[in-house]
Amino acid sequence: MSGPDDGLVHSVKGNFVHDERVDLWRCRFTIGRRDVCDVCIPFDTLVSRLHASVEITPDGQIWVKDEESRNGTFVGRERLALVPAELRQGDMFKVGKTLLRLEQVHIAEEV
Prior knowledge:
Blueprint: E1 15-19, E2 24-32, E3 39-40, E4 52-56, E5 62-66, E6 73-75, E7 78-79, E8 85-87, E9 92-95, E10 98-101
Parallel strand pairs: 2-3
Antiparallel strand pairs: 1-2, 2-4, 4-5, 5-8, 6-7, 6-9, 9-10
């Protein structure tokens, strides 16, 4: 939603992780400057190498978590503390100077 990639749509497959506590698979993807992040934002120097992560639960809940970034992750005007914040499809959140919006979440079963 901002920066040189304004309007660019990232299609993120995410990584499925097994939560043994509840025996469910969750989809998680990372955001940061590192090229190994699922969503790489190399042009924004206020984005940490590993800045934030987004997790989608099997029941469709979406959570954004700050990964101890230097400049914080914001949902609206609120800086995330140590706990994740729930997002709804279409909500915007900010890492560094970059605004992001999560849309059209589709969860495929793990094969």
